[in-house]
């Protein structure tokens, strides 16, 4: 007994070590897979943002190239460009023409603003405060036209933006660089307006060294850089170009707010840089889910399964070894038990190995890397339930086979009440029963994903027949789901496809095929009757289930 306990303890130790190693490898693989998926999603998002920014900057360049500065001050300079602007992109908040006016042109500019129906046709500061026009001795940048024209934008023309803390430096830089320049994030249209950026493109008269004005496009920051899918793996934030300790984020309604980056707060998973308006913008990406926690949960499940299998193996080994030890002690007085004991042990080992191999295959295929935990759990429970049910039926028949119709009457087959069964009630072998039970479960579990083509649940018919002469007797099984199409039937899992196409046919030494007709889904299995019945297995089972003969003294 001490020796048996030592062996069981050794097996348990090996099982625990293997379970821990498997959990460790799964943990590392889950982290790697999640990291690759997150990096790929972030690269795609950053690329889309850069493409969007490049398109908007190209629009500004084309608009400034099509624009012709006036020979005199006008307030409807965007009129020729309106159709061209909308042909490119229409997601800007407002497009504007900012003229660079000399002091002697301001009176004419006010007259133009008044003539074009703007609500406040006076030259004033950016905050609507009056300017001392007589004190001006150099050109100023005055907003002269806007698009679209609506009650909110009609009051803007006439403002001078030279002293604006954001727009003023942007216009100066665009004039100095002679190319489009983007501003810092700023509220658009009003003080509490949506946060956005302004892109200004200088417009030059032919032969002039200084611009006659600027074409500007204003864009909301949320749709320009912070747009994100609700189902994405990350949340994106824009680092404030004026202060690296602040960043801008957008909520589900697209409202952009600024927040301080805390020292003890979450660290961005990745940072990507995009260019727009002659400057770089840094995008911070934060993973929505904790990959480490997910990896730990998956590793815990794998470790638990490994420990459970270790317990099963140790229990079975201990049980078999204990019975072997007990029977070996009785061999001196009961010689007649030797034949039966050997047969029982060999058969039990054979069947236990087969069951454990099947369970291992089910667990490995169901809990494959990247599988959804909830879906995998339901499939794993159903498949193991199907295996448990067929083992119960075989135990009740002393492993001499199972009636084929009995497999459809079991509670482990989903929607068994809607399956029309037709065929001779033959008795199949233990090996065939295990394969067919899993096969029936996979077929039935995928047969009710959605409504059928006529608004009803699929009607299922299972037929089988035995055809042929003597040595060429063939078992033919046909499963057909009427009122089912490729669009309504749930796609088979990877494990299901392997079971349907390879495992079940090979276990029975036959072939299988599946296909869709106009009104149904069909699965057919053809196998030699010898492998379905397996008379060798039946004879062997009957041998060690027969009553013992008394030992002759």
UniProtKB/TrEMBL annotation:
SMART domains: CHASE, HWE_HK. Keywords: ATP-binding, Kinase, Membrane, Nucleotide-binding, Phosphoprotein, Transferase, Transmembrane, Transmembrane helix. It catalyses: ATP + protein L-histidine = ADP + protein N-phospho-L-histidine. InterPro entries: CHASE_dom, CHASE_sf, Sig_transdc_His_kinase_HWE. It comes from the Bacteria. This is histidine kinase. Pfam families: CHASE (PF03924), HWE_HK (PF07536). It is found in: Membrane. Gene3D superfamilies: CHASE domain. One of its GO terms (molecular function) is kinase activity. It comes from Bradyrhizobium elkanii. Residues 171-225 form the CHASE domain. The chain crosses the membrane at residues 301-322. It is an enzyme of class 2 (transferase).
